[in-house]
Amino acid sequence: MYALREAIQGISRTRSMSLVSVLTISVALLMLGFVIIATICANGIVNKVQRSEEINVYLHDEMTDGEMLALEETIESISEVESTRIISKEDAAKEFGEMFGDELLGSLKDNPLPRSIVIIMAEGFRTSGSMESLAEKIRPVDNVESVDYGKELMSKLDIFFLIFIIIESVIIAVVLSACILVISNTISLTLMVRKEAIEIMKLVGATDSFIRKPFYIEGLLQGLFSGLLTFIFMYGIIAWVQYAIPEINLYKYMFGIETLNDIPFRNLIALIIPAGGFLGLLGSYLAVRRAF
Amino acid sequence: MIEFDNVSLMINNTRIIEDVSFRVKKGEFVFLVGPSGAGKSSILRLIHCNIFPTLGNVIVRDEDTKKIPKRKIPFMRRSIGNIFQDYKLLQNKTAYENVAFTLEVTGTKRKIIKQKTLQALNTVGMAHRLTHFPGDLSGGECQRVAIARAIVQEPFILLADEPTGDLDEESSWAILELLEKINLSGTAILMATHKTEFAGIGNSRIIKITDGRIV
Q: Is this model's pTM higher than 0.80 or not?
């Protein structure tokens, strides 16, 4: 109780500095929030593209239906594979006709298109490396004509995602460090203001943990308040964007939900509040440890 | 109770105290007399575990200060009262709050805080000034509040570092009378002063110190 009262008094004593601190942290957390949303979006896009990218195993006509089914079963049992499906010669012709018109194939006596097995990789294995490794295993199988996938696109996607993760990590590290530094400086100021009281507390036999506690609580409160403010900002900004451009269902695109009130969205954004609290606590911990 | 055994203290290659030995027994009133810079305050700081001897041993209540674990020092300090020339009162707290603060920060229950604080302020004759801030009090009154703060935890010894340094003669004698009264109730007092005229009151003993040595 004493620690909480002292923490609130501490905020009140350095009112303007605390306000600057809360606003700065809120802006930083807001950036952090949008970086996380951007990551979710990018991850969604990459995943969607990766998911649409399949491995096509083209088969010779000599392969019997039994052999084809056995091969499909073997491929499906591999842990890197999510699912498989068989494209018959008729299905291939139909697909070809939809893309290029029926006239071209119709002029031929026989359907030259091969049967194929389409492989969709499991999540976490939709990379060019995993796809190439699987393709290498299938190519030597008897009566397999060729194994094909969007090798170039997958490689580019891998590089794009890697660069994105690096940039994102740098931004997050900078933003987090800034938050911790701002809180740490504010608490240092409170420590300076309370220098005399701390000296007297030590003189009369207060323990270090007792002296430190109010400062930890002060940092925690500043962080939690900043987190709350950021939550309100983000909620407001996203609602405004949705209102201003109703054609884009932003929520569906980003979170796979219909409205702003959907629970997963609120839960996700609300994580910013404890994150703020944690940063506040860490900042004050560093300031206090530096001081005594 | 307090024992200095051949204590020497060096700070930044400067000799502050050299080969000092003395004892303060239970309930004694001892004056540590010497000019400014003689090492009086350092002796008090050694007892309070703010600093530790370079050579020799400082024994406080049968414990060698160098061997007391760091986490136990705050608890040891609760049994030692301190007063200073500049009072060290918190300007934004009233006389009552300044005294109560000592008990608050050492985790005493609220009901006991009130009882003990009023008792300590009554002992020093400041019960009528509870709600006054240090800025509204005279130097002598501030020192009385500081003494109340020092005795509120019922210490076995009171370390007084030039407590009359900022006071006029009349107030100084009043403070000395108050310290004598506290001493008679059983609390030992070790008072550092450069004013030789104050030393030797009642049953007190004098230790003279010059240039870090007892003479």
A: no
